[in-house]
Specification:
Two copies of one chain form a homodimer. Chain A has helices spanning 2-11, 15-30, 35-56, 61-68, 72-88, 101-104, 106-113, 130-139, 152-167, 180-192, 219-242, 262-280; strands at 150-151, 196-199, 207-210, 249-256, 287-296. By secondary structure, chain A is mainly alpha-helical. Chain A folds into three domains: 2-88, HetR, N-terminal DNA-binding domain (Arc Repressor Mutant, subunit A), CATH 1.10.10.1680; 101-210, Arc Repressor Mutant, subunit A, CATH 1.10.10.1670; 219-280, no CATH class. In chain A, strands 1-3-2 form a three-stranded antiparallel sheet. In chain A, helix 3 (35-56) packs across helix 5 and helix 4 (61-68) packs across helix 5 (72-88). The longest helix of chain A has 24 residues, at 219-242. At the A-B interface, helix 1, helix 2, helix 3, helix 4 and helix 5 of A face helix 1, helix 2, helix 3, helix 4 and helix 5 of B. Strand 5 of chain A pairs antiparallel with strand 4 (249-256) of chain B, so a sheet runs across the interface. Chain A binds a DNA duplex through residues 35-36, 39, 43, 60-63, 69-74, 76, 176, 179-182.
Chain lengths: 297, 297
DNA sequence: GCGTGGCATTAAGCCCCTCAA
DNA sequence: TTGAGGGGCTTAATGCCACGC
């Protein structure tokens, strides 16, 4: 996190580049999206802009190409792609959610395929001695989800299962096999996010434990989630404000506040907002959305 | 604009994809950045995320590659690139500003190279008859910047000049010649943004007029500028809030307000904010930044 | 485990050209 | 001027393998 902010400060990116960087950090580092997935998503967003220009410019391939500096041929392919997405529901290469599906779904599939009942052994079907098993069980963290331990082959099978399931949505020609680098990537991501943990044993395949019932439900992750949702929503509000849509409002205040009064000021602001909202709230009327963020400059 | 919102509604992108789309619309359609420039900027943002992971993961190429699903070789190239940017100030491929430099600077160069003094003819050095010239001058819009009209060759030379000047910052191997498609792109962008206008004449080269003293100073464009700046800043504030930085605050309120009271409510909110800011403002203390946006859901 | 090297495929960002409607 | 073809070069995303540490 600190690394990220340092990097941003040193590179001095402009506002758009900053937004891109925050997005990249969230998608790649926090969310665990593949590098290629992020590039694809950015390319798809650009395609939407091109498609939109094409429609506004009387469906003129050459002119659209000139306005955005790409080949008319390419514009045509892009327009076709978006058209198919709109008409036939073909999937565009977007991120689709905060985290990749195969990571989100992973704990559920494990819980389903390798369930564990209280009292039963967590480790089954290995060549370990009972003594070794109980030693491992003893060293397990507390409060584990009700799932058995699995070995590295079973882990691979789980990932393979999820991968093929996530590929089902794609048309046959676009499906990609689960390559070894991709498998390693997913495994490492699961470990990195502390969704699973590896237990190396002296001989034979390493074992894996499921640590959490869902991918990344830490409190920090929840805030990251809110950050992205809020920013998208804020972007949308400002977009309406740019077009002078009725009932939109934008404010930006900078004020110097003594350090020992900041908390007090923010608390009061919170109360003011609530009182204001209470005063005007009237169930069933059109819904007004208000977003606010404050912090030291 | 409407086209854009329609498209977003129909594709139902997730929050991250939404942010990318708003960015793409702003960069490509409003700002006039090249398609390739946007892709490069997104790739650069991803590179920063990868670099940051590499530093956090004890400079392990293989592990960084696995965490983000790219080849260690590629990680190495990326790390080197960012390192050079940090150490030697080498330029990364970023957007760099709301609009491309060559568009922003265009009016200034025109004004400098083809200045016009009140009373003098706007059109010089063509083979037009005095009568034709005065007819054209008569039809010109009012309130033009003090610049002479130029023909298409002179326009091309201006663009060439700007292009080569913008390439000076790049190291020799990376410089790209001004291709014809690129020239056409820049010309079309200038016309599209109503910075210049073409005047076709019956025989000979078409003429061009400079319409504005600067690229895109319309009020709408100013709001777009604020939108991007605000969003980047909001993103930063929330980023601090995610890490529970002291003195950060985030609020999100939804309330139902009767349509005929919305304006009143927003006005009151505005006053509340100002009063609150006045109350706590104390010159010379640390600066607190507060951002707020509101609108119908 | 790691870094490094080679080699292959495919897509796509760029450029240039021609011809018919 | 536009759409529809043709051709080209180059980068880079993604994969595989192999060597030496």
């Amino acid at each position: 996190m600190k690394e990220d902010r340092d990097l941003m400060q040193r590179l001095k990116p402009c506002a758009m580049d900053q937004i891109l960087m925050y997005l990249a950090f969230s998608a790649l580092k926090t969310g665990g999206h593949r590098h290629g997935a992020f590039l694809d998503a950015a390319a798809t967003a650009a395609k939407c802009a091109i498609y939109s220009t094409y429609m506004e410019e009387e469906q003129n391939l050459r002119r659209t190409g000139r306005l955005h500096h790409l080949e008319p041929k390419r514009v045509k392919v892009i327009v076709k792609e978006i058209d198919q997405a709109l008409a036939e529901g073909k999937l565009l290469k977007m991120l689709g959610s905060q985290e990749p599906e195969y990571l989100i779904q992973f704990p559920y599939v494990w819980l389903e395929q390798h369930p564990w009942q209280a009292g039963a052994p967590r480790i089954v079907g290995t060549h370990l001695t009972p003594r070794e098993k109980s030693e491992i069980e003893r060293d397990l963290p507390d409060e584990l989800p009700p799932a058995r331990l699995i070995n590295s082959i079973q882990l691979m099978e789980l990932i393979e299962f999820l991968h093929s399931r996530s590929q089902e949505a794609l048309p046959l020609p676009k499906r990609e096999p689960l390559s070894e680098p991709l498998l390693d990537h997913i495994r490492d991501r699961l470990i990195y996010s502390r969704t699973v943990e590896r237990i190396d044993i002296s001989r034979g395949l390493p074992l894996y434990v499921l640590l959490k019932t869902s991918y990344s439900p830490e409190s920090r992750e929840e805030r990251v989630f809110s950050m992205i949702e809020d920013t998208a929503s804020y972007f949308r509000l400002l977009n309406a404000w740019v077009d002078r849509a009725p009932h939109t409002f934008r404010a930006l205040e900078t004020l110097d506040v003594p350090a020992d009064q900041v908390e007090e000021a923010l608390n009061e602001l919170d109360k003011l907002l609530r009182a204001w909202a209470d005063k005007y709230h009237c169930e069933g009327s059109p819904t007004l959305l208000l977003q606010l963020a404050a912090g030291l400059k």
